[in-house]
Amino acid sequence: MPTTRLFPVTALPRSASLAEAICTHWREYLMEGAEIAVLMLSTCIWGVFLYSGDSPLKLLGVLPGSKPTLMGAAVATTMFLIIRSPFGRRSGAHVNPAVTLAFFRLGRIHRWDAASYIAAHFAGGAVGVLAASEILGSRLAAPPVYYVVTLPGGYGSPATFLYEFALAGILMGTVLYSSNHRVLVRFTPLFVALLTVFYYALSSSIAGFSLNPARTFASALFAQTWRGIWIYFSAPCLGMLLAAEVYVKIFGADRVYCAKVFHDLHSTCPFRCRFERLYEES
User: Fold this and answer.
1) How many domains does the chain have?
2) CA neighbours within 13 Å on the CB side: how many for 25?
3) Cα separation, 262 vs 149, whole angstroms
């Protein structure tokens, strides 16, 4: 593997202002917003298809217990395609404020990029649900779909918090380990997809799981249901930040080469990127 740089890097200097960040990386911010908009649109469409009262799956005799797994497979496929898309390969496909916060803690993303990514996630998620509402109409708002809102399950808020916290940590730990491993790096999108299917399969209701504050916010905004919102804001962020701390303790901060979920060595990189060193040090 050649060690010369194969891709352009447009990382901001540490002294960059917000205006300079927007001027330099506005494309990446729009890409992140578009990515989560697509994710929310897909989640809403599949939520209606699988769970609405007039779902065609009733005629096929699909068992209710299989719906979470089917939902997971649909969302996982969408996420896989987003990560591997030209947008995802360029912006890093965070699609989640908690992921961005973890990479910021690891020192791989500028503070203004981090703030702008998070703002793009919340705005893009809302746009995705708005688009789904226009396409799907009352079927998206009607029970049991209800804008695919995420709410604490039957075991209560403490159990939901622990569930979100633990699964978020596992997901971020997997991303960090695989994306900074010479052999496994190419499989990171697949690992994210497989974990998504597994997590949905563990969930017994349409609420599924979130692990994403912007995803929960987008649904809650249209459903006007805010019960347990603190869980979905705090638990994923804390879980992913803890995973980042554990990774650094075990492997060291120098073993975090970039803030991209999937680095392809060709797309423009907007981060403090040292990805070539993954091959130089192996």
Assistant:
1) 1
2) 32
3) 28
Is 255 domain-assigned? yes
**pLDDT higher than 70, residue 234:** yes
Any idea what DSSP says for residue 11? Answer: P
Position 206 in a domain: yes
Phi-psi map region of 69: left, alpha, beta (phi>0 left; psi -120 to 50 alpha): alpha
In angstroms, rounded to a whole number, what is the distance separating the alpha carbons of residues 248 and 253?
A: 5
Q: Could you tell me if 20 and 111 are in contact, meaning their C-beta atoms sit under 8 angstroms apart?
A: no
Domain residue limits at 134: 18-280
pTM: 0.93
* 14-57: pLDDT as tens digits: 999 999 999 999 999 999 999 999 999 999 999 999 888 777 66
What DSSP string runs through 61-118? T--GGGHHHHHHHHHHHHHHHHHHSHHHHHH----SHHHHHHHHHTT-S-HHHHHHHH
What number of other Cβ atoms are within 10 A of residue 237's Cβ? 22
- Each residue's pLDDT tens digit, 57-73: 665 666 666 888 889 99
Q: Supply 186's token pair.
A: 């190419």
pLDDT tens track for 136-156: 999 999 998 999 999 987 778
Q: Is 4 part of any domain?
A: no
Any idea what the CATH number is for the domain that residue 132 is in? 1.20.1080.10
